Amino acid sequence: MLEFNQQTPGADGRMLYLEGFGGDTSNAAVAAARAGASVAYVTAVGRDEAGARFIDFWRGEGIDTSAVLERSGQPTASYVVTHGKDGHAFLYYRAGSAASFYAPADVPTELIANAKILFASGISQGISNSAADAVFHAIDIARAAGVRVAYDTNYRPRLWPKARAAAVMHAAVAHADIALPSLEDAVTLTGLTRPSDIVDFYLRMGPSIVVLKLGAQGALLGTADGQVAIPPHPCTPIDGTGAGDTFCGSFLARLLAGDTPLLACQYAGAAAAIKTEGYGAVAPMPRAAKVMAALGRAT
Fold it and tell me: What pTM does this model have?
């Protein structure tokens, strides 16, 4: 979704907005690419100026856009980010967007079957019934081909009721190898409040790796070997837009690079923290060299 991120008012008092690129799975794709992974993106955009700019942007990031559909009469979605004393807030314009018309027949079977990890989110399923079905179809293709599945709940109450969201998302998580919920989502979807209980809840559903994102408190990693707290990486945040997506993409990229889940979490936490020090979902996302330097690791 095309992003308009609120900035400090100009000298004449008018509010200014920084244009950028957003959308949770797009953000994660960019983060994974900047962390060194080979990435392909599956979506639909409008056959419009915004859609064309997105495709150019993804290609500039080294992302394979061969499966990105361009559709006439269905616009590319957009959103506005505002900032206040309680943090950032969103105003979305995605009803009737090209992505919301995505359907199972649009899913690229061969591309997914040849991947190492398929990543999807609750927003991917919440934008429409056909998109929800498309994600389930993609998961079926991945599992049949031995491709690992990763899933971020990313619950948005404006998209669908809590009960339906929980049922659909948890059905997807039950077929995932890696679950990446955030604390706020998980409290809403599960009714649990203790992070350790939430991690256990998702591990029992089937994933072998669960990472509960805790925002400023870091993350909690859960595997069959137990749970490990990941302390937050020091930062001076000004905009949390896309931080969780940065974590997801970075974490998956580092798993593919051979890191243990613990090392991948540490990298992802640092990448997400660095991202919050700039405005916009993707512009401040760091590349691998910067994250490794922040962690004191060799590239």
Answer: 0.92
